[in-house]
User: What shape does this take?
Amino acid sequence: MVNFRGYVRQTLKRLLPEAVKSVLRDAADLSVDSLDWLLGRHDPLTPPRRLARNVGGDFKRVGENVLQYLVQFGELQPQDAVLDVGCGCGRVAVPLTRYLNERGSYEGFDVDARAVQWCVRNITPRYPGFHFQAADMYSKRYNPTGKYQASEYDFPYGEKRFDCVFLTSVFTHLLPGGMEKYLAEVSRVMKDSGRCLITFFLLNAESRRLVETGKSPLDFSHDFGKYRLADPDVPERAVAYEEAFVMELYEKCGLQVQEPIRYGSWCGRSQALDYQDIILASKTRHD
Assistant: This one.
């Protein structure tokens, strides 16, 4: 028997323009959020679904996982100064409010001004040590009138300010010029004793084989040498980098990768810690 509802859903998904589908998704999200308000189920530190959907994955679960990795692998301490690059609508900031103490501090920035505004209105009043700002940087989806390209954007912070810097699902959307600039800025704002945790889609012998044999849900078939794209018409949708190229950039930027790299399941691996690959690094020592 034909599943009529499923057939209609798939047909609409295929035929409706993306703009119409986006409006329908937003309307559905608003309806569920409104119902939560009416039934007293609203959490003031959980953003509207239309914002949480933009960062992907389960908002609370992913945020808790990242905090766990920062503590377990990055040795994050409650008194640390933390920088969240690509903070979105506070996915990691929210669990950090329970971890950082009064001596700790948090700074976050993102290209999505709507997400940042939500954080400013809902997180900072409750946790004054948490600060957020919008980056006036070009993004076809989130900030099409942005003043700066990623390759020329200076982080709005002084040198050697942070104990811990992290970027989750940022370099998976940046082209090489932007990625190299960001990595240099990460190194600049880290203290000499600092650590950084960054996620990637890394191409090596194993992941390339899995991608090329169709094991990965991401089709990185558009090869540009040091990196591959899933969609050349929208390059920022998903970017995978050759691991050797990434290692060279870390060294160039004065960052020492801490082994092991924790490889993700994005390419079809059966055993993985998380979806994306995770690299932890520290400042290179010059004794």
Residues 18-38 form the longest helix (21 residues). The chain has nine helices and eleven strands. Confidence is low (pLDDT under 50) at residues 19-24. The chain has two domains: 4-42, 52-283.
